[in-house]
Structures are given as structure tokens and as C-alpha cells.
Amino acid sequence: xxxxxxxxxxxxxxxxxxxxxxASAPVPSGSRPGTTVPGPSTPGGSATPVPSPPPPAAPARxxxxxxxxxxxxAQAHTQAGSGEFAAAGAxxxxxxxxxxxxxxxxxxxxxxxxxxxxxxxxxGMGRKALALGTGDxxxxxxxxxxxxxxxxxxxxxxxxLEADQHAGSAAPR
Length: 173
Hints:
7 helices; mainly alpha; Serine Threonine Protein Phosphatase 5, Tetratricopeptide repeat; about 60% helix
């Protein structure tokens, strides 16, 4: 192949450079939501905002227990039913090592703590479950009910009533 004349080589390189620039050129500002575009109806051609579409609604979550955690919860229920609250608590702590961010396990452990007479610890576990259960109305309601029961156990009935109302508004029974 014979060498190209310098002017043709320079023209090809310039065309390639322009093509590369065009491929990485930014999208015009009027085509993105939330930006401004010149408005023909405004005096002096000032910019008018283009509204952004609302974000899509987040789907409701529903927490479930995995197989291992579910088996441990069943074992803890048996232990608590026999009055072995310490053993039930230890079993649920094993389940929490498997699924630490599952609010259902925190609620279960809070129920065991409440059964053992540790209402303030049950309250804390209910609040932890409430924080973790964001997006799951059933988990939120169960956490509020645990909080209400722990408050009632400490004689804080007005606050318990308020927590019961939160439970009812999160997910009616």
C-alpha cells in the first residue's frame, strides 16, 4: 500500500478525532429531566424548569425466616413454652448470627425477654426490629406491639396505647 498524501492523512485523523469527540459529547441539557431549557414563551429567552418525574414507589417488603433460622425459632418456642427462657434466648441469638438483619428474629428475642421479665430489653429489641423492618408493614406492626407490651409491663400505659396505635396504623391485624 502506497503512503497517503499528507493532506488526506491529516483529514482522516481530523475526522476520526471529531468522531471520537462526538461519541463522548454530553447529551443536550434539554433532554434530561430536572434540567432547564430555553423557554420561547418567557421574555428574553430565560430558562424554564422541566419537572422531574416522581420516583417509582418502593414495593412493600416482606421479611421471612430462612430454613435454619426457622428451625431455631421453633426450638426457641418449645424452650420458652417449657419456661426455659435463658435457653430460648441463646437459641434465638444463634439464629441472629445467621440472619442479623431480620427484624422477625429481634421480635422473637424481644418476646422471650419480655417473658423472662426483662421489659426494657424487650423494648430495645422491638425498636431494633422497627428500624430493620422498614418497608414491611407486618414486621413494623409486630415491632410496635412488642414495644407496647414492654411499655405496659413497666406501667407506662399512655405510651403503650400510643405504640398500639402505631401498630394498628402500620398493619391492621
